[in-house]
Amino acid sequence: MQLMAYGLAALAILVMGLNVVLAVRLRRAIVGGEIGEKWGLLTILVAFFFVGYLFSPLALYYEIPREYLSMLVFAVFLFGAIYVWVVIGIIRDMLTFLKLVKK
Predict the structure, then answer these.
(1) Do residues 93 and 38 touch, judged by C-beta distance below 8 A?
(2) Residues of the domain holding 63
């Protein structure tokens, strides 16, 4: 079971690493404005998650105490919620720009 957890962590790290590269490339392509500003925040959150993914196998290996793992899980929930909020804002701004949504 532990080996499966490490395998899943490795796969998640790989996918999130690709997400970081894509987010940074898109950030460089966005000229600015409100969407560019929000995309910068999104890129920071993706990088934050990537660092968390890198440390997740270490938490298993060193058997971090349960109370710290609980705090880590709820921090991930919080930043995940912020991530979703920013993504919704970007989509809303793009649709408003394309005049597909009423203000």
Answers:
(1) yes
(2) 2-97
Number of domain units in the chain: 1
- Provide the sign of the torsion angle of the four alpha carbons 23, 28, 31, 37, taken in this order: positive
Q: Is residue 102 part of a domain?
A: no
- The pTM of the whole model exceeds 0.70: yes
pLDDT digits (tens, 9 = 90+) for 24-68: 998 888 877 878 888 899 999 999 999 988 988 888 888 889 888
| 22 lies in some domain | yes
